[in-house]
């Protein structure tokens, strides 16, 4: 069976390349600023955010749950958690029900780190991303992201 590639047209190519460039530049800038102001990497911050989500009342997640939330490979989660554990931001606790499983818990130092970093990070996100958009553009962006996320969830 033969398949024909539907190449991107000029407008789609421009949009796709702009989206990739935006993501790369935005995350690089956010990472640089976080490290400069708080000593946290964007990966540290993502884990701290996951552990402080409202639906994580114990400030603790199984390693595999953390990986699923972040869409990270198991080895990346393990290495990042080890780096953060060495700095006292999180602690690993073995699971009593599953000897191979482990929980990642937010420590007091981790909570203090995200509490200190979040205001500046949110201010930078607002400055770089949202301040240049009007309300309709923000709503459109939300609809766009939801549509793509829904298509990804179908897999």
UniProtKB/TrEMBL annotation:
The keyword DNA-binding applies. GO terms for biological process: response to stress. Transmembrane segments: none annotated. One of its GO terms (molecular function) is DNA-binding transcription factor activity. Signal peptide: none annotated. The keyword DNA-binding applies. Residues 1-150 form the HTH marR-type domain. SMART domains: HTH_MARR (SM00347). Keywords: DNA-binding. This is DNA-binding MarR family transcriptional regulator. It comes from Nocardioides kongjuensis.
């Amino acid at each position: 069976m033969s398949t024909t590639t539907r190449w991107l047209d000029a407008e789609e190519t421009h949009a796709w390349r702009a989206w990739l460039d935006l993501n790369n530049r935005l995350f690089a800038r956010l990472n640089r600023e976080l490290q400069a102001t708080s000593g946290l990497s964007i990966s540290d911050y993502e884990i701290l955010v996951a552990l402080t989500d409202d639906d994580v009342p114990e400030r603790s997640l199984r390693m595999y749950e953390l990986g699923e939330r972040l869409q990270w490979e198991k080895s990346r989660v393990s290495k990042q958690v080890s780096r953060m554990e060495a700095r006292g931001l999180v602690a690993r606790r073995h699971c009593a029900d599953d000897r191979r499983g482990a929980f990642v818990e937010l420590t007091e130092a981790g909570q203090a780190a995200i509490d200190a970093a979040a205001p500046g990070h949110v201010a930078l996100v607002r400055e770089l991303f949202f301040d240049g958009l009007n309300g309709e553009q923000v709503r459109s962006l939300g609809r766009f992201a939801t549509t793509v996320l829904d298509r990804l969830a179908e897999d």
